[in-house]
Amino acid sequence: MSEFIAGALANYGQFFNLGAFLSVVTNSVTWAIIGSLVVLEGLLSADNALVLAIMVRHLPVKQQRKALFYGIFGAYLFRFIAIGLGTYLIKIWWIKLVGALYLLWLAFQFFFRKKDEGEDDGDAGKESPSMGFWRTVLAVEMMDIAFSMDSVLAAFGVSDQVWVLFLGGVLGVAMMRGVAQIFLTLICRYPELETTAYVLIAIIGFKMMGSSFGFIVSNAVFFGTMVVVFLSTFLIHHLRQREV
């Protein structure tokens, strides 16, 4: 137990270590990793941003913006706690294996489960119009945390550096608040992007599973694969359009 506490505290200490922060922000390779985390967050969370917008729509316009702004703190706090603990726990092989299996299960569910028509993300976000401002803020906080779990776990498969994960999460959440509609429009125009997100999750899951057994994939191969998969989405889309 004392080893766990010491390890977790050492991880949290990196949040307040200027050297650790500067080593991340001055390294072009880590910015490539952060960029991939931001894109992954965007692909996974575009529809979630729409749900949050629905949750606050019964409030006056000024309060809608405040509720969404306050809701960001819940997402950031969850990431701070999860990253500090997770980057220590994920080094334990069986925890890494469980995380990998969960990511692969997410991909399996997406590709093989029967999707119920009308299974409503929108209904999940509909709240009673009688809810006051602070109850709405609390609901947004809880929903933000629930939406964060999958993307945080996927991020652990990409990197184990505290500041890389935190900056990727922070920028991803901030971006989704500002440009959620752009991602939604992009996904509507290229619906294959939703499939791409889960292909990437499966790749991350296999990478995490391999590393739990000592099989390490180099960053060049891993990110090269992710870039190829992402760009191939647009090629597949245009080939399908030609066939129509």
Features:
82% helix, globular, 244 residues, mainly alpha, 10 helices, 0% strand
Task: Provide structural commentary.
The chain has helices at residues 2-14, 18-25, 28-55, 61-89, 93-112, 121-125, 133-156, 162-189, 192-212, 219-243. By secondary structure, the chain is mainly α. The longest helix is centred in the first third of the chain and has 29 residues, at 61-89. The model is unreliable at 117-129 (pLDDT under 50).
Secondary structure blueprint with pairings:
Layout: H1 2-14, H2 18-25, H3 28-55, H4 61-89, H5 93-112, H6 121-125, H7 133-156, H8 162-189, H9 192-212, H10 219-243
Helix pairs in contact: 1-4, 3-7, 3-8, 4-7, 4-8, 5-9, 9-10
Could you write a compact summary of the structure shown?
Helices cover 82% and strands 0% of the residues.
